[in-house]
């Protein structure tokens, strides 16, 4: 599908970069200091289309790779290939290809990848930002154990537990890719009424059970079609494998010598982002002791989970002001 027909003025170039793990597709727009943008689930490089244009217009080079398992990037089958160690190795290698230092910004699953890259490779980065998911060092045990204790043991559905069994969620998404994506996008967006994502679903229900098939206003029919085209290329097995690494990530992250990020940082979230409700208390305040050079933390009123797509102008404003002072 030709995404260029959706916005003829948006004209990124595509680099196909081979690093030690495999070949990656990177969308590139603009010239100047480099900003690498890491997408989440279930998205693609295209989730950064608005911020890429804003960065380019402001004199930056925006780099948006398809993360391992997505689009036209390296797509191994094994679940362990999607650990935080492997993914941060990918980002470090891509940074080396383009030349450091680079500013890294991640959204959703891309945020933990960005935070962990800053922990492991601070010398390669000018700064690090997370959208939707704040930085938190690992707790006392892998998070999946907490999810099972809080949800599964009480007979309740939780999407990350549902994603653990290989092939189950893949089959649901592949049965109707457009319906699966639009349900997920809308239910987690700021415009969805309270209760759209049910809190009383039972363990054993499917992901899409009782979710409305409503396309959010910030996503055009053509943009949705482009996302569908990308998952027809990659499938969902690699993207879902990211959720199957809680124990591996816990072991790896608890073994790192440093848990505090010292380089300049930024956080942007939404006041209606259900992902933030997974954290006990005030997640923004809780992360501050672990970010010694936090230069901004913003919650956009009314915004849901898809931060840079729902509120592109506000996100660009915050990001550009932060970048100007690095």
Describe this structure in words.
With 326 residues, this protein is an alpha/beta fold. 36% of the residues lie in helices and 16% in strands. The protein contains 13 helices and 8 strands. It has helices at 49-57, 84-98, 110-120, 143-150, 159-162, 168-175, 177-187, 221-234, 237-241, 246-254, 283-287, 307-310, 312-324; strands at 13-19, 22-29, 34-38, 61-65, 102-107, 125-131, 265-270, 294-300. An 8-stranded mixed sheet has the order 1-2-4-3-5-6-7-8, with helices on both faces. Helix 11 (283-287) links the parallel strand 7 and strand 8 (294-300). The longest helix is centred in the N-terminal third of the chain and has 15 residues, at 84-98. It starts with 12 loop residues before the first strand and ends with a helix.
SSE diagram, text form:
Layout: E1 13-19, E2 22-29, E3 34-38, H1 49-57, E4 61-65, H2 84-98, E5 102-107, H3 110-120, E6 125-131, H4 143-150, H5 159-162, H6 168-175, H7 177-187, H8 221-234, H9 237-241, H10 246-254, E7 265-270, H11 283-287, E8 294-300, H12 307-310, H13 312-324
Helix pairs in contact: 1-13, 2-3, 6-7, 7-8
Salient structural properties:
326 residues; 8 strands; alpha/beta; 36% helix; globular
Strand element count: 8
Strand order of the largest sheet: 1-2-4-3-5-6-7-8
Mean pLDDT: 96
The parts where pLDDT drops under 50 for at least 5 residues are none
Helix-and-strand structural type: alpha/beta
- Portion of residues in beta strands equals 15-25%
Distance between the termini: 38 Å
Helix content: 25-40%
Shape: globular
Summed up, the helix count is 13
Main β sheet profile:
8 strands, mixed
Secondary-structure element pattern, one letter each: EEEHEHEHEHHHHHHHEHEHH
Gyration radius, to the nearest Å? Answer: 18 Å
